Amino acid sequence: MRNHALLISSSVALALVVGITGQAKAQSAAPATPAATPPAATPPPTAPGAAAPTTPATPPAPETPPAAGPASAPATPPAPADAAAAPAAATPPAEPPPASYFRIDHDYQYGLQLWAGATHSLGGGVGLATDIYLAEVEGGAYRGATYSWYGEFDIGPAFTFGPLSLTPMVGAGFDWGAKHANLINGPQLYTILNTDSIYIESWIWTLLYSPFKEAPSPDIFHTRDWILYKVSGTIAVGPQIELWYSLKAKTINGVDYKSGVTSLPFGGHVDIAYGTGNTLGVFLGYETNKDGRDARGGNAAVGRFTFVHNF
């Protein structure tokens, strides 16, 4: 009996222990009461006018960026060696400057004279020639002036046929002292033949004063012509003749000008090479016409110094 009572007491005690242990486990597993603050995963509400929430900041990039991955566009391949070595396109040669010259004359007729001219090539042996001519002439001016400051502009085509060149021109003259146009020089013709041993040059002028009031001179035809033999590469010598011919008799400022030959000098001409592009020319002659000698106070000697620089 006593053993039976002990067994019952042990069973009741075991049941009480099991019950207390199970109640303790059940109380530990129950959830805690939720807090009033939302969980951290939920963003807080944005205040009115404030900026919208942003995503977490991106970590700073390293100082040296990593090499691009396969997703990057491939770099441009280097040019082939042949392409790099290919020569540049040939630059067309520069157009040469026009042939030009500067000339100084000092002679028995007009004293000191300055010239400058050029010929612009048009192709095929044809060019456009222009020049200016300046002279300070004593006497023969408008309104009894002592000097005539004369200037002339000429223009015309230039034709070249091997050693032969022909340049017909026409020009207009101005007396700057009288502030008056006073001359048409046309037609003109310049002929040059230049071979290995012979040089020939011829000028023709037609000086027309009559179209202008108070003409200082009658109309005049003039030519000067010389033929030279090239003794060497430095010196050429030969004869020269010049003709001045009055086309119409006229009285100007109380002076009677008759028609016909007014001057006919004849003499010798020497050209000397005077450095690169330079020529020094000398003409010395005798005035064969009496009217020409009288117009110069009975002096028969005539001459001209010329210096030409070709650019």
Description of the molecule:
The protein is mainly beta and 311 residues long. The chain has a domain of 212 residues: monomeric porin ompg (Porin, Beta Barrel), CATH 2.40.160.40. The protein is 13% helix and 48% strand. Strands 1-2-3-4-5-6-7-8-9-13-14-15 form a twelve-stranded antiparallel β-barrel. Strands 10-11 form a two-stranded antiparallel ribbon. A hairpin with a 3-residue loop joins strand 1 and strand 2. The radius of gyration is 56 Å and the shape is globular. The termini are far apart. The N terminus is likely disordered.
SSE order and pairing:
Layout: H1 2-29, H2 81-85, E1 99-107, E2 111-123, E3 126-138, E4 147-161, E5 164-175, E6 180-194, E7 198-208, E8 220-230, E9 235-246, E10 250-252, E11 255-257, E12 260-263, E13 265-273, E14 278-287, H3 290-295, E15 301-310
Antiparallel strand pairs: 1-2, 1-15, 2-3, 3-4, 4-5, 5-6, 6-7, 7-8, 8-9, 9-12, 9-13, 10-11, 13-14, 14-15
